[in-house]
Specification:
Elements lengths: L1 H23 L6 E6 L4 H15 L2 E6 L2 H9 L5 E4 L5 H5 L5 E16 L7 E2 L1 H8 L9 H4 L13 E5 L4 H13 L1 H6 L12 E3 L1 H11 L3 E6 H6 L3 E2 L1 E3 L5 E2 L3 H5 L26 E9 L9 H14 L2 H4 L12 H11 L3 E2 L2 E2 L1
Parallel strand pairs: 1-2, 1-3, 5-10, 6-7, 6-8
Antiparallel strand pairs: 3-12, 4-8, 4-9, 4-12, 10-11, 13-14
GO molecular function, one term: phosphate ion binding
Function: Part of the ABC transporter complex PstSACB involved in phosphate import.
Protein name: Phosphate-binding protein
C-alpha cells in the first residue's frame, strides 16, 4: 500500500514540481499531500489546481480509492484523506487519533451500460436486484423488455462490472441496494469491498468506466462525471416515490433536503424526496482533529486547515457543477465550518 501510494504521489509531484518551485520562493507555499476516493477526482483535480494558483501551495492528490485514503490517513503518511463512505464508529476507534469529516460536494453513482444501439434504459429496483445478483443474464429478458417499451434490446449476455478495490463508490451503491432489496441485504450487504455474486472487477472509477466502454453488453456503477467524460449511457433509476430519474445537479441536490447530523456522517441514498436521484451521496475529506502528528509543522497544519476551509467556500462550491457534481447545501457548509473550528495543534486552537 505504501509503495502504491508513493508511486502515485511521485508521478503527481513530478507534474506539479515546476509550479511549486516557483511559488516557494515567495515564502508562502506548502506542499500538501492527500489520497483517497476516485469518485470526486475530477472535482478535486480542478479545485486543487485552482487553489494552488491562488495561494502558491501545492496539493498532490493520489486517487487510490476510499479504502486506500483511509489507510493512508491511518498510517499518517498524508495531510488528509478522502472517502465516499464515512468511517463508522468501529473504524474511528481503530485510528491513532480523533478523525473528523467534512463533506466537499455531492455526486451521483450512475448505472452505466454499454448495449449496442441502445442509449435509453429504465431500471426498476427489482431489475437492479436481479441483474446485479445474476438472476437475469440476458438483455432481452422479458422482465427488462416489458419495463422498456419501445426499446429494442439484443439477445446479448449481461456482463456486470464492479470495483476490485476498496471503494466508497461501492459503499454508496451497496447502501442503496441494501435499502431496496432484502435479498441483496442478506446475501451481499454494505461495505467498501464486497463478495460479488456475479461480474468482473476493475480498479477505480476510471477502470470501471473503461471496462464498460470497451465491453459490449456490460453494466456497472460509476461516478457520473466518468460516464459523461467517456460518453457512456446512463440508466434512469427508480426512486422511493416510484419515479424514474436521471442524475442532474437538481436531482442530486434534492437528495440532501433532510436534517444533517453535526458530524456530517450520513448516507443520502434512496431519499424520500420524489424529485431525487436515489444513488446520491456526499464525499468527504477526513483528517485528524489534532494536526500535530508525524512531525508535521504548525505551518503545515494551518495550511491544511486553510485548504479545507476553502473547499467549502462559495468560490470552490461554485466550481462543482462544472464537472457534474452538486454543491453542498447551506446546512452542510455550516456543519463543516463548525467542525473545522475545533481543529487543534498540540491541543491549541489553530
Amino acid at each position: 500500500m505504501r509503495k502504491l501510494l508513493t508511486l502515485v504521489l511521485a508521478v503527481a509531484l513530478l507534474s506539479s514540481c515546476s509550479n511549486s518551485s516557483k511559488k516557494t520562493t515567495e515564502g508562502k507555499a506548502v506542499d500538501l499531500t492527500a489520497a483517497g476516493a476516485t469518485f470526486p477526482l475530477p472535482f478535486y483535480n480542478m479545485v486543487f489546481k485552482q487553489y494552488g494558483e491562488e495561494t502558491g501551495s501545492t496539493v498532490t492528490y493520489g486517487g487510490i480509492g476510499s479504502g486506500g485514503g483511509i489507510r493512508s490517513l491511518k498510517d499518517q503518511v498524508v495531510d488528509f484523506g478522502a472517502t465516499d463512505g464515512y468511517l463508522n464508529d468501529e473504524q474511528l476507534t481503530e485510528m491513532p487519533g480523533e478523525v473528523l469529516h467534512i463533506p466537499t460536494c455531492m455526486g451521483a453513482v450512475v448505472i452505466a451500460f454499454n448495449i449496442p444501439g441502445v442509449d435509453s434504459l429504465k431500471l426498476s429496483n427489482d431489475l437492479l436486484e436481479k441483474i446485479f445478483m445474476g438472476d437475469i443474464t440476458k438483455w432481452d429478458d422479458i422482465q427488462i423488455t416489458s419495463n422498456n417499451e419501445g426499446v429494442t434490446l439484443p439477445a446479448m449476455d449481461i456482463t456486470v462490472v464492479h470495483r476490485s478495490d476498496g471503494s466508497g463508490t461501492t459503499q454508496i451503491f451497496a447502501d442503496f441496494m441494501t435499502k431496496i432489496s432484502e435479498k441483496w441485504a442478506s446475501q451481499v450487504g454494505v461495505g467498501k469491498s464486497l463478495n460479488w455474486p456475479v461480474g468482473m472487477g476493475a480498479k477505480g472509477n476510471p477502470g470501471v468506466a473503461g471496462t464498460i466502454s470497451q465491453t459490449a453488453g456490460s453494466i456497472g456503477y460509476i461516478g457520473s462525471e466518468f460516464a459523461f467524460a467517456q460518453k457512456i449511457s446512463m440508466a434512469k433509476v427508480q426512486n422511493s416515490a416510484g419515479n424514474y430519474v436521471l442524475p442532474t445537479i437538481e436531482t442530486i441536490s434534492a437528495a440532501a433536503q433532510g436534517e444533517i447530523p453535526a458530524d456530517t456522517r450520513i448516507m443520502l441514498t434512496n431519499s424520500s424526496d420524489p424529485a431525487s436521484y436515489p444513488i446520491s451521496g456526499f464525499t468527504w475529506l477526513i483528517f485528524y482533529k489534532d494536526q500535530a502528528y508525524n512531525n508535521r509543522s504548525e505551518d503545515q497544519a494551518k495550511q491544511t486547515v486553510d485548504l479545507l476551509k476553502w473547499m467549502v467556500s462559495e468560490k470552490a462550491q461554485n466550481e462543482a457543477p462544472k464537472v457534474h457534481y452538486a454543491p453542498l447545501p447551506a446546512a452542510a457548509v455550516e456543519k463543516a465550518k463548525a467542525i473545522l473550528s475545533t481543529v487543534t495543534y498540540n491541543g491549541n486552537p489553530l
